[in-house]
From TrEMBL:
<feature type="domain" description="HTH cro/C1-type">
    <location>
        <begin position="8"/>
        <end position="62"/>
    </location>
</feature>
<dbReference type="GO" id="GO:0003677">
    <property type="term" value="F:DNA binding"/>
</dbReference>
<dbReference type="InterPro" id="IPR001387">
    <property type="entry name" value="Cro/C1-type_HTH"/>
</dbReference>
<dbReference type="Pfam" id="PF01381">
    <property type="entry name" value="HTH_3"/>
</dbReference>
<keyword id="KW-0238">DNA-binding</keyword>
<protein>
    <submittedName>
        <fullName>Helix-turn-helix domain-containing protein</fullName>
    </submittedName>
</protein>
<dbReference type="InterPro" id="IPR010982">
    <property type="entry name" value="Lambda_DNA-bd_dom_sf"/>
</dbReference>
Length: 142
């Protein structure tokens, strides 16, 4: 079975990330990622969880205990790992990263307000897409 380092390098390359980019996204040192990938150092439990969450795989998969990246679907297993990967992709997007870093500093009331604004914006975007789609269909018919 592949080692943690091999799996980590493979997952990182699948995402098209350099070691430095991955390190920045996870708030780790680039040399730390390099040491993990060369199997010269093992991540502590917290770092292992962060890596698994970032890539949307189970810690057992990273450790080479299973070849099934997403767990078993049992209680506590990351059966929703593909959704976690989407979440991390949004968090890693430079357009959103700075905004998302500010969320923990908000009160619950401010967070609720943010959610309401976000939902409004998404509804607006959806309507605009529909409007453009209808206009495009009309132009194609005429």
């Amino acid at each position: 079975m592949p080692s943690l380092g091999e799996r980590l390098a493979h997952l990182r390359n699948q995402r098209g990330l350099s070691q430095a980019e991955l390190a920045r996204l996870l708030h780790m040192g680039q040399s730390t990622i390099a040491m993990y990938e060369k199997n010269r150092r093992s991540p502590d439990n917290q770092s292992l969880k962060r890596l698994a969450d970032f890539f949307g795989v189970s810690t057992d998969y990273l450790l080479g205990r299973t070849d099934r990246p997403y767990g078993t679907g049992e209680e506590g297993a990351p059966g929703n790992a593909p959704h976690d990967a989407k979440l991390y992709a949004v968090a890693a997007d430079p357009l959103f990263a700075g905004l998302l870093r500010q969320v923990p500093d908000l009160t619950e009331e401010e967070k609720q307000s943010l959610v309401e604004h976000w939902e409004w914006a998404l509804r607006f975007i959806k309507k605009e897409r529909e409007r453009r789609g209808k206009r495009k269909e009309g132009n194609q018919k005429g």
